[in-house]
C-alpha cells in the first residue's frame, strides 16, 4: 500500500503539536510498532450476529416469564426465573461447563432439524422433585441414584412445560417440541461435533430458598434454517405484514354487527338492613332512589349506553330510547 502523503497544512499542524507538547514523538513511535491485528479463534467461531443473539434473548425472556408462572402453579411455591446470559460457544465448552452428574432433558424441535438440551442444575432439580413429592422444596444432590419413578416425575414436569416453549417461539416459527431422552451424564451426549457452535441460554432459577441454573443448549444446525428470521429486518417486515388487508374491516364490522348483546334496565335501587329485609311482608313498600320524572339507564356489562323511559308493547314490558349517553358512566353526567 502506498504511503499516505500529508499536505503542507497538515505537516505544519503536526510540527506545531510536537513543539507545544500536545503530542509525544516517542508515543507515536510506540503506536506505530503496535500490531494492527485482531486475534481470531477458529475453534470459537462466531456464527450469530449480535442482532440475532438479542432476538434469541428476547424470545427466552418471554419464555422465562412463562416458566415462572408454570412452575409456580405446579410447585405451589415461590418461583422466579430470568435470563442471566445468552452466549455462543463451542459444544465441547458447554459440556465441560456443566456438572459431571446433572439432569438433562433432550427435546426435538420439529420441523427444525437436530435436538436441544435442557440442563437443570441438581440443586434446582431436587428442589422441584422434593416439592412435588410433598416436601418443603429442600435440595439434595443424589443425581447418580435417581430412581425410575423420580426420573419419570422430573421428565413429566418439563414435558408439560413444552407448550410454553412452543408459544415463546411462535413469533418466529411454529414448532412442535417433544421429549426424546432423559440423561444424567453429559459425557453420554454427543448431539453435534465438539467444535460446533451452540447458543447457550442460562436462566437464573429460584425455588423457595433454593437457587441454581437452567441451561438451554441450542446447536447451530437447529437454528440455521431460521437465522434470517432472527434479524430486526424480519421483525419489522413481519409487523408490516400484519396490517389489515382490503375488505377485512368491512368483514369485521359485519361480524360484530350480527353479534347478540345483552341489555339491562334497572328501575331503581335502595338500601335496607338485614333486619328490615327479614321483616318484609306482602304489601310493604320500598322507596327507590329513582325519581319517576327522570329517565332510566340502559346498560350492557355495567356500561351505561342510553337514557330510556319504561312502557309496554303488545302486552310486553318495554323501554323507549330517549337519548344516547356520551362520555362514559352515568356518574360523570
TrEMBL record:
Annotated GO MF terms: cytoskeletal motor activity
Keywords: Bacterial flagellum, Cell membrane, Cell projection, Chemotaxis, Cilium, Flagellar rotation, Flagellum, Membrane
Cellular component, GO annotation: bacterial-type flagellum basal body; plasma membrane
CDD domains in the cross-refs: FliM
Topology of this chain in the membrane: Peripheral membrane protein
Places the protein is found: Bacterial flagellum basal body; Cell membrane
Domain Flagellar motor switch protein FliN-like C-terminal: 255-325
GO process terms (BP): bacterial-type flagellum-dependent swarming motility; positive chemotaxis
Membrane-spanning residues: none
Main localization category: other
Family: Belongs to the FliM family.
PANTHER family on file: FLAGELLAR MOTOR SWITCH PROTEIN FLIM (PTHR30034), YOP PROTEINS TRANSLOCATION PROTEIN Q (PTHR30034:SF6)
Protein name: Flagellar motor switch protein FliM
